[in-house]
Amino acid sequence: MTPKSDLNVRHTSPAFRTFAGERALTALPRELDRTGSSRAVIICIPAVAAHGEAMARVRAVLGERLVGQFDGVEEHSPLPSVEQARDFLAECKADAVIAIGGGSSVVTARAATILLGEGQGIRELCTRREADGRLVSPRLSAPKLPQWVVPSSPTTAYAKAGAAVRDPETGERLALFDPKARAQGVVLDPVVALTAPPRLSWSAALNVLAMAVEGLQSLNSDPLAEASLAHALRTVVTRLPRVAADPSDATARLELMLAAVMSGQGSDHTGGGLAQALAHAIGPRSSAPNGVVEALLLPHALRFNQPVAGHRIAALGEYLGLREASPEAVVAEVERLLATFDVPRRLQDIDVAKEALAEAAVHAMDDWAITAGPRPPEADDVRALLDAAW
After folding, report:
1. Domain at 17-191, CATH class
2. Which of 21, 69, 130, 364 is least buried, going by the fewest C-beta atoms within 10 A?
3. What fold characterizes domain 197-389?
């Protein structure tokens, strides 16, 4: 008799190199040599560019390989700044990209390389909804410039293959997806890590936490992904208070960045979730960073998912140190943690206008992440959830 098993796992980990510590930056020249790159361009936000010591460390290891620096990155990666970055890469004849900073730098660099490689406008390349209602991402076949990330804050964007660009004219979130645009790796330097204001590291770490919680609700069992997500969750819960108590604790900041790698990679296998999709739609309409919005919406998403994923939610209790393993106890603990982490409770607390909810709900339904949760919502569900969170 042939043995049978209910376990069915397909787990493919894309190549990705992680370097962390005092000498991590010295890996960059070797990494460029490995890909045959000799004309690197830095893409960063103005605030990071203004940090002399941190930027000098990066420039020193790149040496003559550095041929330009684009420091026009803007929050939420608006299309005009992405197009400017694309044009700058072309002008410099870049053959490699170094993204320095947080999520906006990473996403802008990735989106710019996709636009440059494909040579088309974003409307021809982005994910769109077909007539039958399916969300479809076009296959992008052109080669892409190799990229590396030198982060200043923990963001799950490090290892992703997607890049979401905001059209400021329409308010739309235009999503690009291309596995060839994944970064080659991440270089975690303690000096660069300390350039981020404490509140920025705080908000980015909340995204790491929310992505881990949403990934761990997945009904598709993947023990390898779950191990990464669980450790990422435990790390945020223990290290975020350390950074809050001592913003100069470089080790705790680097550990949060490693948690971001784990949460980003783990959620690649389990998919996104409802809170993520809603935060993508609400974030630009608020006064708060995306991680704060996502964390605020997380308890609402947990309650929505509970009818189909109650057992998965209850299992989170082990990673949160709870003795009582029930969905209700987990939601209560998440709410307690968010209060401890000073996360606002209502959308109106972060200046989201009531009249903005209808448009945000429409945009959320076109977000790929909304299809990945254990209980995909209808349009009425999304609007009701946003109303409840307001």
Report:
1. alpha beta
2. 130
3. Dehydroquinate synthase-like, alpha domain (1.20.1090)
Kindly tell me if the per-residue pLDDT of 131 is higher than 90. Answer: no
Task: For 138-163, write each residue's pLDDT tens digit.
Answer: 889 999 999 999 999 999 999 899 89
Q: Which residues pair with 135 in a beta bridge?
A: 129
Beta carbons within 10 angstroms of residue 12's beta carbon? 6
Predicted model pTM? 0.92
CA distance 212 to 216: 6
Burial 364-383 (b: 16+ CB within 10 A, else e): bbbbbbbebbbbebeeeebb
Give the pLDDT band (50/70/90) at residue 3: low
Encoding tokens for residue 275?
Answer: 């809170």
Reported in sequence order, the residue ranges of 50-171 that DSSP labels E, i.e. its strands, are 66-70, 96-101, 128-129, 135-136, 147-151, 162-166
Residue 152 tokens read as 């200043």
pLDDT digits (tens, 9 = 90+) for 260-311: 999 999 998 887 789 998 998 898 888 888 899 999 999 999 999 999 999 9
Alpha carbons within 13 angstroms on the beta-carbon side of residue 276 total: 26
Dihedral over Cα of 349, 352, 215, 261: its sign: negative
Question: Can you read off the two tokens belonging to residue 8?
Answer: 């069915």
Largest CA distance in the chain: 69
Residue closest to 197 by CA, chosen among 48, 349, 30? 48
Triad 213, 45, 181: Cα angle to 5°:
60
| CA dist., res. 264 & res. 262, Å (int) | 5
